[in-house]
Each structure stands twice: as structure tokens, then as C-alpha cells.
Design brief:
Blueprint lengths: L1 E11 L4 E8 L12 H16 L1 H5 L3 E6 L1 H5 L11 E5 L7 H12 L3 E4 L17 E5 L5 H13 L3 E5 L4 H9 L4 E2 L8 E6 L8 H8 L6 H9 L2 H13 L11 H8 L1 H12 L8 H25 L4 H9 L3 H5 L3 H5 L6 H7 L7 H11 L3 H6 L6 H23 L1
Parallel strand pairs: 2-3, 3-4, 4-5, 5-6, 6-7, 7-8
Antiparallel strand pairs: 1-2, 1-8, 1-9
Length: 406
């Protein structure tokens, strides 16, 4: 599944880049498709931070991201460090008490606030005291309108950003009018960046949300449901590794990742990810889920025989993630750079020295019907026992998928 994000540079009057605005795209065609604002921002966030990668997009600069009223009230920006993003408050958001309280809270937490496509109105004048940057559409505003906003911006010590600067003449006029930041086709058209993501699953999401909203959520049940979803497991590991939750602890199970993340943060991230449920479940996505579950369950059983129950979860995760290179169409070494997995799991996945490597060897031998290779890696298990593990894995997977579809 290909994912896309466009970015456009924001520059100073010396034409130095201070950041990039991230823009929603759903293909390599470089234009915005009409779509719900929550879904557009959600796609930008997931594709940028968990798909393509923050560092690749930002080049060390801050990322300007549009947030809808709904996402601001849900405190979605707090999932990202104030050092990484600038919050753009969309032009249709009014400055009522509820939104002002939320923006004031974000400002107190250290976030930079930008008002997008700002036009002075009675309904949004209350937002101005909280603005660090005021973005003005240079094509659709008059000089008089820009001057009025500029006077108020100076009063609140907010910087002016001129959007849609199309020509050198536009740039020079904006400079004369006191604008400090600039954005538009004169400098650069948005550049589309893409990568491949794991096909999205939504089978057990309703059950996870239901459990998360209970007064006393059952963590083990939540862990099980997340483990069964390869896309969700992968995203949670990337969240732990790439955002404000970075830890030097190597992850050996999904449960450990959830404990590090915390249930409150899990609820917020899961709410964002769940907006992707609008996407269709393709036959390929279903097959990938099934094959990953079979591998995970087999690895759990065989790993338990080899290393005891203490490493069951680690072996399950090894099996579940063993198809990531094929799914993402990237070398496994490259995929693993962004995942905080244990060295034993990482080495097994790239077929280097690891006590867990034998599990991958056995799985691949079974799938290829390579009985000679299988017999060489039985590690004290009989062919009948191995066959039993695999049959149980298929039955278990079918039962899991049937249950998730209910």
C-alpha cells in the first residue's frame, strides 16, 4: 500500500528554510483531493511520522501541520514534541471558550501556534493573543486587509507569514508590508514524498476501543487484539521508537510497548489510527494478516518448546514481523532501523546469528515444503510435532479472523 505526503518549504526574507508545511496527498498527482479535514490531517500524521519518517521529511526543521477543531479538542498535537511541529489552526475554527482553553493549554506546553489563512473576523479575534505566526493568503487578500492584520500582529508580537507567493514581485511587496516568513510556488511547488505502508486492518478495532473505554480495561485482552493486527502492531512499535516516547529499552513484546506508551496515550493514538477504517479491506490485506498470524502462532509454539514460556511473546512477534520486508518492499535491515526490537529478534529477521533464527528457518522450510531443510532444523522436535504446531496455527488463525469479523 503506497502512502503519500507533500511538503512545501517556509522561508525567511533571506530565503533560509525554517520549516515545511505538510500537505495531504493520496497519489503522486500533486494536488489536494477533497476529503474530510480530520481524515486528511490523520493521514498526514500517520504517513509522515509512522510511514515515511519525521527526519526524512523535516530535514531537522519544524513541520507545520493543519489541525481541525475536533483534533485540537482531542489534544492530538500533544502526541508530538513541541520541537517537531508547529500547530496550524485552520481558518474555519472560531475562538469560542472551549477552543481557546485548549489552545492556551497547548501554548503553555511549549507549542508554536500558527493561524492558517487568517482573516480578521469577530468570531476569531480571540485567537490572536495566542498566535506566534499569522499566515495570510497573499492572493485573496487586499493590501488594506493585510495592513489591518499586521497592526494587530505587531500588538501581540506575532510574526506574519505570506502564503501563495507566486512571483518575485509578490515577494518584494510582502517584504515591504512587513512579512517575515514566506511560502508559495515562487520558492517551490509542494514536493510529493512517498513510501510503502502495511495494508490497513480494521477487524478488531471496535473491540479494542470498547475495551479501552471500560473503567478498568483488560490489558491482556487489548494486547491480544493488537497482536493479531500486523499493521497496528507495527505502528505502535514505531510510535514508541520515533516520537516523544523513545526508550533505550529493547522491546520483546507488544505488551511491553503498550506499558511504555501507557493506556491514555494508546487511546489517543488509536483514535487517530481508527479514522483509517474508511479504507477498503483488500484481499491482499486479508491474506497478509492471515499469513502473519500463522507465522506468529507457529513461532510462539515452537519457541515455547525451545526456550520456555518466558519467550513466547517475543517469538510470536518474530513470526508476525517476519514478512515486513516483503510487505513494505524494502530490505529487512532498512525496515528494522525504526523498530525498537530486541537484538535476538532483529538478528533472526535478517538471518544473522541469533538463537531465534532457527524459528524463521523452520517456518520458511514448511512454507516451501523443503523437508530436507526442515529435518536439519528440528531442534529435538519430531516432524509430527512440527506438523501439529502448523495445523494448530492455521486453525487458530481462521478462528481469530472469524471472531474479529463478528
Amino acid at each position: 500500500m503506497d502512502i503519500f505526503v507533500a511538503r512545501q518549504p517556509i522561508l525567511t526574507k533571506e530565503e533560509n528554510v525554517i520549516g515545511y508545511e505538510l500537505l495531504y496527498r493520496n497519489s503522486e498527482q500533486n494536488y489536494f483531493s477533497e476529503i474530510d479535514g480530520d481524515v486528511a490531517t490523520t493521514d498526514v500524521l500517520l504517513n509522515s511520522f509512522l510511514g515515511i519518517g519525521n527526519e526524512q521529511l523535516s530535514s531537522g526543521k519544524k513541520l507545520f501541520i493543519n489541525f481541525t477543531r475536533n483534533l485540537l479538542l482531542k489534544k492530538v498535537p500533544t502526541l508530538f514534541s513541541p520541537e517537531k511541529i508547529i500547530i496550524e489552526v485552520l481558518e474555519d475554527i472560531e475562538g469560542d471558550e472551549e477552543i481557546i482553553a485548549k489552545i492556551a493549554e497547548l501554548k503553555k506546553l511549549g507549542y508554536t501556534i500558527a493561524l492558517d489563512d487568517y482573516l480578521l473576523k469577530e468570531s476569531n479575534i480571540n485567537l490572536l493573543p495566542y498566535a506566534d505566526i499569522i499566515k495570510i493568503d497573499f492572493l485573496t487578500t487586499t493590501k488594506k486587509q493585510r495592513q489591518s492584520i499586521g497592526k494587530i500582529a505587531k500588538l501581540y508580537k506575532a510574526k506574519l507569514l505570506a502564503e501563495k507567493i507566486e512571483t518575485r514581485e509578490d515577494f518584494e511587496v510582502a517584504l515591504e508590508e512587513g512579512f517575515e516568513y514566506f511560502q508559495g510556488y515562487f520558492f517551490s511547488k509542494p514536493m510529493v514524498v512517498s513510501t510503502t505502508d502495511i495494508p490497513f486492518q480494521a477487524y478488531g478495532h471496535f473491540k479494542i476501543l470498547k475495551e479501552l473505554n471500560k473503567p478498568e480495561p483488560d490489558i491482556d485482552k487489548i494486547v491480544s487484539l493488537i497482536e493479531y493486527d500486523l499493521s497496528l502492531s507495527y505502528k505502535i512499535l514505531k510510535i514508541v521508537n520515533t516520537l516523544a516516547y523513545y526508550t533505550k529499552v529493547k522491546i520483546t513484546s507488544i505488551k511491553q510497548a503498550i506499558i511504555i506508551l501507557g493506556l491514555n496515550e494508546l487511546v489517543r493514538w488509536f483514535t487517530i489510527i481508527s479514522l483509517k477504517e474508511q479504507q477498503s479491506k483488500t484481499p491482499l490485506a486479508k491474506e497478509i494478516l492471515a499469513q502473519s498470524l500463522i507465522r506468529g502462532k507457529f513461532a510462539e509454539q515452537f519457541g515455547s518448546k525451545l526456550f520456555g514460556d518466558r519467550r513466547k511473546a517475543e517469538c510470536f512477534m518474530l513470526g508476525m514481523f517476519s514478512l515486513l520486508d516483503a510487505i513494505l518492499q524494502r530490505p529487512m535491515e532498512n525496515v528494522l532501523e525504526t523498530l525498537p526490537l530486541s537484538d535476538a529478534v532483529k538478528n533472526a529477521l535478517v538471518k544473522e546469528t541469533s538463537e531465534l533464527r532457527v524459528i524463521i528457518e523452520v517456518i520458511e522450510a514448511i512454507e516451501k515444503a523443503d523437508w530436507e531443510k526442515l529435518n536439519a532444523h528440528l531442534e529435538g522436535s519430531s516432524p509430527t510435532e512440527i506438523a501439529s504446531y502448523y495445523e494448530k496455527s492455521i486453525s487458530w488463525t481462521n478462528e481469530i479472523i472469524d471472531n474479529l469479523n463478528e
